[in-house]
Design brief:
- By secondary structure, the chain is of the alpha+beta class.
- It folds into four domains: 1-88, Phosphorylase Kinase, domain 1 (2-Layer Sandwich); 90-287, Transferase(Phosphotransferase), domain 1; 294-431, Rossmann fold (3-Layer(aba) Sandwich); 654-766, Serine Threonine Protein Phosphatase 5, Tetratricopeptide repeat (Alpha Horseshoe).
- The protein has 34 helices and 15 strands.
- The protein has a six-stranded antiparallel beta sheet with strand order 1-2-3-4-6-5. Strands 10, 11, 12, 13, 14 and 15 form a six-stranded mixed beta sheet that branches. Strands 7-8-9 form a three-stranded antiparallel beta sheet.
- A hairpin with a 5-residue loop joins strand 8 and strand 9 (145-147).
- The protein is globular.
- 51% of the residues are buried.
- Residues 163-179 and 423-428 have low confidence and may be disordered.
Length: 766
Amino acid sequence: MIGQTLGHYRITEKIGAGGMGIVYRAHDERLRREVALKLLPEQIAGHADRRARIMTEARAASALNHPGITTIYEVGEEGEQLFIVMELVTGRTLRAMLADGPAEPRALARVGAQVAEALAAAHAQSVVHGDVKPENIILQADARVKLLDFGIARQAAAETLTLTQSKVSHAWLRDSEIAGTLAYMAPELLRGEPTDARADLFSLGVVLYELAAGRRPFPGPTATALTSQIVNDPPPPLTGASNLVPAELGRIVHKLLEKQPGSRYQSAREVQVDLTNLARDLELGAVLPAAVAGKRAVAVLPFKLLTPNPEDDYLSVALADAVINQLSASGELLVRPTSTVMRYAKQSTDPLLAARELNVQVIVDGSIQKFGQRLRVHVQAWKAADGSTLLSGKHESDIADLFGLQDKIADSLARAFGVRAAPAAEAAPTAPTKNPMAYELFLRGVERLSRFNRWDTRTGIEMLENALQLDPRFADAWVRLAEASLMMAISFEPGPRWMRAAERASRRALALDPSHPDAHCTRGRILWSPAKHFQHRAALRALDHALRLNPGCHPALQWRATVFSHVGLLAEAKEGFTAALATDPDDAYTLQGLGSLAVYSGNYEEGEEYYARALSVDPSHLFANVFSPGAPLYAGKLERAEEKMRVAAQVAPGDVLLSASEALLWAKRGEPRKAEQAAQRVLRLKAVLTHSHHAWHHLAAAYAVLGKAAKVPPLLRKASRTGFPNYPAYRDDPHFAPLRNHPQFLRVLAELKREWDAYQRDFGRR
């Protein structure tokens, strides 16, 4: 078949063969792309019913649109030949990975979660796979999973079952292939009972068991023995297979392997949630700083309005936000930030399911009823593990005393959790303003800011400014105004106007309340900005102060770790980012920060995994997009780096770091002219309010590869002076290896080493 054409597909290479046909690599002459082309066997193509059935299923599967599912482009016929054209996927099947022995639990949980996510997407469209097994799951080089053969796998399983039950042998389906599919079949299928999507979950359980133990749970040597074991015998305890198998993984797998569908997980989404949480727990457990280890994770969901009125919508998020801030201030809990729980606003949510999705031990839910100028709030807290109630209480208040109401709620929850709502709980709390209308405007502004878009941020700022007209001494409002102005400067309208507004508001807040942790945090973020020339030391002092006042301040943890990562305190940065991740495991900024740290340390594969996780959380995240090409670029995987640059350019067209990365890419490919063209685009840069220091670093690396050593030291000095004096990153950068004896390069390193030593002395681990 090599060299032949089917339709407009020119066959170029045989990839593999199996019971459901032969797979070739082919070139789509019309769209000029590489595809996988599967020729279905005569036993399918020549049988009218089977042919019609597989055409119907393949067409249904072609409607699936999910990154974890191989896309079906076309179901075609050429004479009597039936073929399916699919996305060409490269990587290793899980079957090939099994040859390396049992999988490491964290990697296994991440892979399993991705397979479950793909199955959930298919099941939501009423498409069942029907033949989930290691051969049909590919792990790509970027650690992303693809599930193969939707649309034909079910037919393959049906053929296997028919052959097994009739003991018939066909030349096109070998006994090993029968056993290979049979080993992953659900008991109800073998019993001849009706099946549904839960059969896929049983198959996934067999795959995960095999990955964890290095062997299948049902190892019957013959089809008859294998069928009997699957239908009748419990699998050996997975935790007995290895001391390295976590108990939670064993629980998940054995629940998937229940004989009765009703006793299994009822949806792939539930499996995805549990495996994702397990992966996070295993990852955090390996590196969790002592400061956060052992703390309970808590989430406070937006309160439900039982007397819905659009004018009162702000209460749902604003009350939850206030309680979140007071509980996190204790430093004794890991409280999910408001941005993480916002997705549950205005939804009918099962709190215990939300607890699993948020990976918390305790979940808080509440409802609000408004009667004229009175509010009644019912608050409940549950243990996620068993659904038992920790707290159930009601609080009533005049709407004019919203602060007192939220304080009562936070205090009752803190007592139920055995912690203090704030470090200074002995002192009676004082209202942040005596003007009820100012406080209502403040809460309305807070709710607007939580939506994180340009229009609502501007509206929130107006509400805060109106609150401050009513009470100019309202410190909390000045803090939120500073945060909102900074958000505008960074995310929506870059420029000096909003940065000046943020600085004015933060100074006013600190003058009114010098012990306000959020005011110090915002002050630190302002100081560490292009507009303020990245004042590392002053920013670190402000962020340290914020964390002394509120150890649970999530933004302060993030931004202090960011500054650490730029001045070369990599261990301190990792500890900070990991602590932030413990508070919010789905924070794309934190994940990309850990990705950059991994790259600076030479752990390129780990860096790529972190960037992939960040982009799975937020595909449009600016930093995750522009930094993600760096991991494969430094690892020498140039094609993948180029592809990531193309994707990032759609999110950040004209970004200076992408241009510098392109220069390094062309330099490593031995294309000096193209590298210089990209470099000139960077050098023509005038004044910008982005973090251009990373671009100077990459440009220096490009010139080092091109052999233009004299250009490297000035660029490294420029990178350092504009915010990136990262001595370990420059010292260990493999592109600078040829300059190890270059006098000017060594002089720059010596200067940076002295600066780094001072940062170690003043801000390093104590």
